[in-house]
Specification:
7-stranded parallel beta sheet; 12 strands; alpha/beta; 3-stranded mixed beta sheet; 13 helices
Length: 339
């Protein structure tokens, strides 16, 4: 197949493209930076490259020309008030042009990469593919919910569109440094707050594999939660200690205090030299995470998520090799005989 991919210079899109190329498929990439694409893919592996934005109808149409399938993973992630309009336009208008454009052309293998944000409800016990669109307060969250409602509307009309919902995505070879990796950076400094709830890690290579399977053969359902592994915060500390061989300090922190600190951070973040995942939205998820149920993808696609220890090992090894964490922080991860 020739597969049109948006967001291929981002984490999920990049690995999805690599998984498809490895199986002999062709890709048509819509990218904002050709130089970045060339650094990631080289000059000979990509069959078609269109320089443009997902909100540019003409460039989206060019990228769709001659394609048999589509993976839409591009999205703007920002919780800053100044970015609200751009976030909404990029995510909502981009989804309408890419997913809607694919459906109008009769392309029958289409994946919309959503996120836990689109389903998030702190009052729920678990989140599944049948959970209603979430309740969001910031521009990014509202944009993901709007995209979810739009794509579910297409599905209700019979469009051949799949939706996947990744949890916190980790793994090696991140073209940038996504928030879950920033979070691991901070935890590896040696102090892990033990607060309410927990988090859920999914390996980017597992996401890419699910996307490949969905494109290559018909699937029983049209929505799949990709939650991976749920851990409470004490489990996170123990898992990192097991992988690194280090002793990490754990500090109790009530959920209310964590959310209050996030609210304060949002007010002062514009005056700080670095942007860290400490805002209210991040603290909301950290203290009120709702587990995602993997049962459907495991049952219907006979899919098994790789062990968490493998994902953490490969992630931390990549963080060290890329200069994002120190030798001390990596611990025994960088000793080749330990796995």
């Amino acid at each position: 197949m020739r597969v049109m991919i948006t967001g291929a210079t981002g984490f999920v899109g990049y690995h999805t493209a690599q998984a498809l190329l490895a199986e002999g498929h062709e890709v048509s990439l819509l990218v904002r930076s050709v130089d970045k694409m060339l650094n990631l893919f080289g000059e000979d592996r990509v069959q078609q490259v269109v320089r443009g934005d997902v909100t540019d109808a003409a460039q989206v149409a060019r990228a769709l020309d001659g394609c048999d399938a589509v993976v839409h993973s591009a999205a703007m992630v920002s919780t800053h008030a100044a970015d609200a309009e751009r976030v909404w336009r990029t995510n909502v208008e981009g989804t309408r042009l890419v997913i809607g454009g694919a459906v109008e052309r009769g392309i029958d293998r289409v994946i919309h990469v959503s996120s836990v944000t689109a389903l998030y409800d702190p009052q729920a016990d678990t989140l599944t593919e049948d959970s209603p669109p979430g309740r969001a307060h910031n521009a990014y969250g509202r944009s993901k919910v709007a995209c979810e409602e739009y794509v579910r509307g297409l599905q209700a009309e019979g469009a051949a569109v799949q939706i996947t919902y990744p949890a916190q995505v980790i793994g090696p070879d991140d073209p940038g440094l996504t928030e879950p990796h920033q979070g691991l950076q901070l935890l590896l400094k040696g102090i892990i707050p033990i607060t309410s709830s927990g988090t859920q890690y999914v390996d980017v290579r597992d996401i890419a594999e699910v996307h490949r399977r969905l494109l290559e053969s018909p699937a029983p359902s049209n929505r799949y939660v990709l939650g991976g592994h749920y851990l409470d915060w004490r489990d996170v500390a123990e898992s990192l200690q097991a992988v690194t061989g280090r002793r990490l300090l754990t500090v109790p922190m009530p959920g209310l205090a964590a959310r209050l600190s996030g609210r304060i951070y949002d007010r002062v973040s514009g005056h700080l030299p670095v942007d860290l995942p400490f805002g209210l939205e991040a603290m909301e998820y950290a203290t009120r995470w709702v587990p995602l149920d993997n049962a459907r993808v495991e049952r219907e696609l006979e899919f098994c998520f790789r062990p968490l220890q493998e994902s953490l090992y490969d992630t931390l090894h990549w963080l060290y090799d890329s200069g994002h964490i120190s030798r001390r922080q990596a611990g025994r991860v960088i000793e080749p005989q330990v796995r």
